[in-house]
Write a structure and sequence with these properties.
Layout (H helix, E strand, L loop, with lengths): L3 H11 L4 H4 L4 E7 L4 E5 L2 E4 L7 H15 L9 E5 L5 E5 L9 E5 L8 H6 L5 H12 L4 E5 L5 H8 L9 E5 L11 E5 L13 H8 L6 E4 L6 H9 L7 E5 L3 H12 L8 H11 L2 E7 L5 E13 L3 E15 L5 E7 L7 H6 L6 H12 L1
Parallel strand pairs: 7-11, 7-12, 8-9, 8-10, 10-11
Antiparallel strand pairs: 1-2, 1-6, 2-3, 4-5, 5-6, 12-13, 13-14, 14-15
Helix pairs in contact: 1-3, 8-9, 8-10, 9-10
């Protein structure tokens, strides 16, 4: 068994052309489009760098070293590599023959400094009022989906929201590649694995999910829903496992539920469409929508309650908070604010009986809405 510190040194040697960007805390993503084209994302903006690998073989050597570190096969029959570097950065590589022009590698970096809810409020991604609502929803074991596009801050927000989970809860985390760093004491981290070069040893998210439900979890957190495991999560949410959380790639809250519906259909369980929609409408309590604005800033744009399902009109949603954009300042920074809509969540009476209160700003907005 080769010690991790040896791999650390070896990997950094192979990745020397991008070492400066790996060490730069302002770089969020490194995108390697072959040996001679390397781009980075910094402060939400993408820029090309002068960095280059010596050759295509040099880049392939780096990818092979990463694959060896994460213990995952690559080759003609395994053209996609998912994993993480020793510092926790997420790696996605696509290799020939899936990428005819050569290997492509994306490294998503995560700040070594944990992004807290207070920090999100400080940078304007959240408001004190909205964060207070989310704290109440999480502590009150409402089921949350954090949705957004690529690079919109879903994982960072989910990490931050985990701070609202009561310390005594047992949390089981399921991921394809470990990214979440929950801020709890009693956390069980599980990671899916693909089959080896001989097709053995595959462990899917769905496999882990089924096993998890027998491990006495108070809450289940799935790093990202991508396929048929959506149905398992939905069924867990409707069978007494409250306080579940996950992330989904979607642009708007309504898209989130439609995507969950589509992914649930990828399972091998056949359900009538209305029955499936009824389960989704009952399982998901709140969608927290994230987005990257025009200036590159990442923020929460909607906190939306799933009220239910109408047989003719589909999912019934109610926005609790919505981000209003007022324009740009002289430097091109988007001026916006996340404001309460005046709608109270239908669960507010239940939360009240559990000892949790909604932010006063929500009641003030409701009063203003009724008066108008």
């Amino acid at each position: 068994m080769i010690p991790n510190e040896v791999y650390d040194h070896t990997l950094l040697t192979f990745l020397d052309p991008v070492r400066a960007y790996l060490d730069d805390p302002t770089v969020a993503e490194i995108m390697i489009n072959g040996p001679k084209e390397i781009f980075i994302e910094r402060f939400g903006k993408i820029e090309r760098t002068p960095a280059q690998f010596a050759s295509r073989d040099a880049l392939m050597s780096a990818v092979r070293n990463i694959a060896q570190f994460v213990g995952r096969p690559i080759g003609p029959f395994h053209s996609i590599l998912e994993g993480r570097l020793p510092d926790g950065s997420r790696v996605e590589a696509i290799l020939p023959p899936a990428s005819p022009d050569g290997p492509h590698l994306a490294i998503r970096r995560f700040s070594k400094e944990k992004l807290t809810v207070n920090k999100l409020v400080e940078i304007g991604s959240l408001t004190p009022s909205a964060s207070a609502l989310l704290a109440t929803l999480v502590a009150g074991k409402q089921n949350l989906i954090v949705a957004g596009g690529t690079g919109s801050g879903k994982t960072s927000l989910l990490n931050a929201l985990s701070s609202f989970i009561p310390r005594e809860d047992r949390v089981v985390v399921i991921e394809d590649a470990r990214e979440l760093q929950l801020q709890q004491e009693h956390v069980v981290q599980l990671e899916a694995r693909p089959a080896d070069s001989r097709g053995r040893g595959a462990v899917s998210i769905r496999d882990l999910f089924k096993a998890t439900l027998r491990m006495r979890p108070d809450r289940v957190v799935v790093g990202e829903i991508r396929s048929g495991e959506a149905l398992e999560l939905i069924q867990a949410m409707t069978s007494g496992h409250g306080g579940c959380m996950s992330t989904v790639h979607a642009t708007y809250p309504s898209d989130t539920l439609n995507r969950l519906e589509t992914m649930a259909m990828m399972s091998n369980v056949e359900l009538p469409l209305f029955a499936l929609r009824a389960q989704i409408g009952s399982a998901i309590d709140v969608v927290v929508q994230t987005s990257r604005l025009k200036d590159g800033s990442r923020c929460v744009t909607h906190i939306t309650e799933v009220v239910g399902v109408h047989p003719e009109h589909g999912y019934q949603l109610a926005d609790l908070y919505v981000r209003k954009v007022h324009g740009e300042d002289a430097r091109g920074k988007v001026i916006s604010e996340l404001v309460p809509t005046g709608t109270l969540p239908t669960c507010h009476e239940y939360l009240s009986t559990m000892g949790y209160a909604l932010p006063e700003e929500m009641y003030a907005a409701r009063k203003a809405k009724q008066a108008s």
